[in-house]
């Protein structure tokens, strides 16, 4: 077997100890294209076990976790190594290499690398891996002893010497550099000869010239140390280095007779500051780009930040306190908003609520969702809150419209059948003083004749008029529903007794019977009303409606001008 060229992924392999070579070893060549098929892998397995009957072996799953050796693999005297995973079989220094080889086994079906077993770290072995999952359900490894020398330890490169941060220069009153130390040469790359004899302004960034000159003139006006100033200086490679410069006016000092400039390299600090500034700018851009209003408040409810979108939604200019900023929230929703904000500032608890707004100069209400999130410090202290405000007016109006259509009949404005039955069931479930209730079943007599003679438009008009009259006569708290083409149901909680129930039914009958003026002409019509009354919670909604329906048919059969009452008691309901 030829040796593979040494590289980081495939270290050179020495031929495993054996008296013969086998063409099956070609599957372990690093540059071999494609994936080895299952039949070839089976041939390689048989060859390796025959050539190395005493070599240790192991089995694992695709995740590297050790598995029992399948009985289908025809081992000779090969000992099976036990370990939690394949990586634990080799010493720590070889695990990265083994992991890379493992990936090649999964990708190509076979791969090999040098390693050292944890049970015998002094001996170099050739780890030979085969993907036998198709026929045996495992990834198989055999560790063949080789004559390869142990690889030398990786050379540790010395850590480069850190550059100095502080330096000193001497300048005359005209800012010519007259002396410099070795530190400035190391920091900026200019030699002393390249610096001395030049004005310091020549090495300062053009954008900083005005600041440097003002600081210099201020320093010359008064002996002693001057004000510190931050300036960029040109490096020999044309990059820029930030210094914090302090010029000391020591022209009258006999020991110096010059300007002494102390320079501190603050490039790392300025780079960090630039990064923070860039992140703040990015956050600001994002905050202005999002389609929701953003409001940040501190623990004392003072406003820290708002974006433009917030003021568009709320219709309020920027204020310093949170309450006036949210002043357009309607009175009825302010309590729940205040509770949510107090909880967020006290414990950091999140809250998501929906509120209504009444904007200046707008008659219609608007709807907003408000999401509150507490801002906590590392020690858990709540330092403020972030409030997100989204205008959901269109969605809320659509939701309300859908709810209205699902609840109310479009023609008459009465409850639909399902809605009125739910209202009756809720009334029964409420119990208490509402247990004495009445249900009135109203049917328009000969309604089909109206449709046949005057048309369906006239019939719809008649239904609408009947619904209006019903709703005008019933008591506050009563509910009117349309449960069929010409049938209505009236629910009367806490009716007060049979006389009161019949009295209300009679008022309904008088209001609904007689002449009605339609667009197509004046017609005379009559209604039949059946009343079912219960003074118990044991009577269910369907029973009450069925009894009122039966009473209505009795009224219709008798062609009576009076409503028919069907009294209900618990025994009858049962």
Offer a quick outline of the entry.
By secondary structure, the chain is α+β, with helices and mostly antiparallel strands.
Proper CATH architecture of the largest domain? 2-Layer Sandwich
Structural class designation: alpha+beta
- Fourth-tier CATH superfamily name of the largest domain: Reverse transcriptase/Diguanylate cyclase domain
Q: How many separate domains make up the residues?
A: 4
In angstroms, what is the radius of gyration? 46 Å
- DSSP strand tally: 22
Write down the overall geometry. Answer: flat
Largest sheet: 6 strands, antiparallel
Mean pLDDT: 87
- CATH-derived topology of the largest domain: Alpha-Beta Plaits
CATH class of the largest domain: Alpha Beta
Instruction: Detail the poorly predicted runs.
Output: 1-14, 570-574
**Count of helix runs:** 16
Percentage of β-strand residues: 15-25%
Share of helix among residues? 25-40%
Q: Could you tell me how far the N terminus lies from the C terminus, measured between alpha carbons in angstroms?
A: 96 Å
Keywords:
574 residues; 4 domains; Beta-Lactamase; alpha+beta; 6-stranded antiparallel beta sheet; disordered N terminus; disordered C terminus; 25% strand
Textual characterization of the structure:
- By secondary structure, the protein is an alpha+beta fold.
- It folds into four domains: 23-145, Beta-Lactamase, CATH 3.30.450; 166-270, 2-Layer Sandwich (Beta-Lactamase); 290-396, 2-Layer Sandwich (Beta-Lactamase); 408-573, Alpha-Beta Plaits, CATH 3.30.70.270.
- The protein has helices spanning 38-51, 95-108, 182-188, 192-195, 209-220, 267-289, 308-314, 322-325, 331-347, 393-407, 417-430, 447-454, 456-473, 498-512, 541-558, 570-573; strands at 57-60, 110-116, 124-131, 139-145, 166-171, 177-180, 224-225, 229-234, 240-250, 258-265, 293-298, 303-306, 351-357, 366-376, 382-391, 437-444, 479-482, 487-492, 514-518, 521-525, 527-534, 564-568.
- Helix 12 (447-454) packs across helix 13 (456-473).
- The protein starts with 37 loop residues before the first helix and ends with a helix.
- Residues 1-14 and 570-574 have low confidence and may be disordered.
